[in-house]
Design a protein that fits this description.
Glycosyltransferase, 3-stranded antiparallel beta sheet, 7 helices, two-stranded antiparallel ribbon, mainly alpha
């Protein structure tokens, strides 16, 4: 596994040759996968992302308050600001997955002191989801393509033509990906009892209800009975992408 140093701590890089750098989603999933053996890596990733959590609005970098980093690159174009990837926030899944990793780290270690120290950052992530991520009509977590130079699609498959309908037409934005709704349900469900444990009972109760409502909404809107599967996504006009694939 490829690691790099962060304040004397190890965090995983994505992979050679083109992705020898830090990616929020990749690091979170890697850290979660090895929590049983290396919980220290999970904590390192959480601290790395906490330090780089967005504090303001910057459309060029797809940054909004509370959003979790997607990618961090050091290179000529990034350093000059010609491309947004020096610190880039254009992923829809890093923020809910950050909450998941924080909760799973606590479940693995029982370290309440760490959970308490991360809780303000977790609350900021929740605020980003509510204020910027959730579609006001569908109540799904959605993304829209940002300014030129950033990513058109902001899930795992981020090429411009990766989200489409069965007839080959490209899905219009904003887009709700099926797995992202699962990540959000996971985050809310894990955090609810921990929030209550820390004294935020109203928040815990609210998250429990919201997770339940989200699950019901997903089952109603994403399930495609004739395919016996979930749609890969729902596009900006409410049309499911009836493709037998995850993102």
């Amino acid at each position: 596994m490829l690691f790099t140093g962060f304040s004397g701590k190890e965090v995983p890089y994505a992979g050679l040759p083109w992705f020898s750098t830090f990616f929020g989603r990749d690091a979170i999933i890697t850290a979660y996968s090895i929590l049983w053996a290396r919980p220290d890596i999970g904590l390192n990733v959480l601290r790395y992302l906490e330090k780089r959590q967005a504090t303001g609005v910057d459309p060029f970098r797809a940054a909004e308050p509370g959003k979790i980093l997607h990618e961090e690159r050091s290179g000529e174009l990034s350093n000059l600001g010609e491309v947004p990837f020096g610190q880039y926030y254009g992923s829809i899944d890093s923020t809910p997955l950050y909450i998941v990793l924080a909760c799973e780290y606590y479940r693995r270690t029982g370290d309440e002191e760490v959970l308490l120290s991360l809780f303000p950052s977790i609350q900021k992530a929740l605020c980003w989801i509510d204020q910027y991520g959730l579609d006001p009509d569908s109540r799904f977590l959605v993304y829209s393509s940002g300014p030129r130079g950033g990513l058109v699609n902001q899930g795992w498959k981020d090429s411009a033509d990766s989200v489409f309908h069965a007839d080959g037409k490209i899905a219009v934005h904003p887009i709700a990906l099926i797995e992202v709704q699962g990540y959000l349900y996971w985050a809310w469900s894990l955090l609810a009892p921990l929030a209550s444990r820390l004294g935020h009972v109203a928040l815990g109760n609210s998250l429990t209800k919201r997770a339940r409502d989200l699950k019901s909404n997903v089952l109603q809107k994403f399930w495609v009975a004739e395919r016996n599967t979930f749609a890969m996504a729902i596009d900006g006009v409410g049309k499911p992408c009836v493709i037998s694939s995850s993102n």
